[in-house]
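Forwarding the complex inputs:
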Amino acid sequence: MSPRLYRTLKIGAEITVPILLLVGWWLYTVERDDPKFPRPTTIIVEMRKLFFFDQFDTHVVPSLERIGLGFAIAVVLGVAIGIPLGLSRIGRSAAMPHIEYWRAIPPPALLPISIILLHSIGNTQKVAFIAFFCIFPVLLNTIDGVRGIEPTLIDTARSFRIPSHERIRRIVFPAALPQIFAGMRTSLALAVIVMVLSEYFSSTNGVGYVLLISKNTFQFLPMWAAIVLIGVLGYLLNALFLLVERHVLAWHRGWRAATPL
Amino acid sequence: MSAAPVLEGSTARRPASGLRAPDRVVSVAVPILSVLVALGLWELISRTELISQRDLPAMSTTVQALWDMVQTSVFWIALGHTVRGWAIGLGLAALLAIPIGIALGSSEFASSAFRVPIEFLRPIPSAALIPLLFLTLGTTLKSEVFLATFGAFWPLLVQTMYGVRDVDPIATDTARSFRLTRNERLFRVTLPSSLPYIMTGLRISSTVALILAFTAELFMGTPGLGQRMNYLESFGLNDQIYALALATGLLGVAIHFAISALEKHVLRWHPSQRKAAAS
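Prediction (whole assembly, two chains):
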């Protein structure tokens, strides 16, 4: 088989397989004709009715707001705590047991506690909860990124008497940035999951709330619409993030490409 | 080439030629001291009513509640249920994800054919499936296992695919020129080379499986620690809620250490582990 034909076939498969899967799903639901498994077309109609754009404000915006705020707080805190920890061995020794513990605990185990502590089932609790769990991927990757810096770089800066805050701003932070971004991407995916969990546990609006209400009222259609919406949301946020990353880390990619591995 | 995400503190250390005394103090005494300080702070914040004792039971109260709890059979049965959900979910995920990952990883054609569906299904938060499972499969072990398997499947699949793709082509070609059959190549070259990736995937998946087993119990009421948590919450028994959360965290840590030990054992021949052992 010529390489060109192979490539054409490959691209063909990349396009047809997802379509076949969708058609398979559609045929299955038509065949089953079960209200528990509505047709994809019906789900899309329901999605439009529920989320786009009549009730966009009541269902989608609060969820996005919580993800955005929680994620932003987590990134800022993760980097701010991670850089000093990456630079200090004693600090790392002291912090590691705590990080290991909080990272290992299943997030939902803290849902009741977050409500008790914060006296809230609104944005305070949701944002705090999302931020808390999204810190860890950013924090650990920041620590690792800082530790992975070529020691010569820091030594050179030091021998040029560059003050330590400048050293952090100009050398440590940029050098750790690719790894920080890797952590941020994990955190963003986590933010969506934690958002759904916290809204599903107790809330008055948001996508997770739609899930909760449709479960309580045995309505499968809005439930499916919410599931698909959450999937699309996760996919789009990830795609958007990759776009931003490509832009911000353009210098890094160029540099990597220039140095033979 | 972007940096791979690190999911935990890596074990690679700067070459330390024998631990000097201050090093040992830092690596042993500091963590212990820091945990003690944190526990002390917890006690202090609660006792001085900085946060009321009702909202944050003191450390000693919580530990006492935990001590009372571990003397009941209810606790151990619930723990057993959670561990069972986790184990079956993780096992099934491994059984599915590793063969599929090897198949997709070794064929460029297959991996590009399924790229879009995988990229689309992977980020779906498994949490979104909870109400659907609740209404279709009910509050059974089946729902819990399905959820845990679904969540644990993706990280393991992706890691296995990367691992297989990362096999040194020279090793494969050498094996081929020695006329090793497809099967022999699989078991002697591909699998051992991709094992580090698979073990990393297993470690990530085991955390995910525990989270989802607990989540299923909390939200759907399948028996286990999560269901106990829901029960305690509905009675507002704050001391016990804190004790149970503490216990759940310890279970998470225990599982993490167990999987890390397994990884170390399975990969004892691999350079990454040798280096870690030397330092």
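The domain at 64-271 of chain B is CATH 1.10.3720.10 (MetI-like fold).
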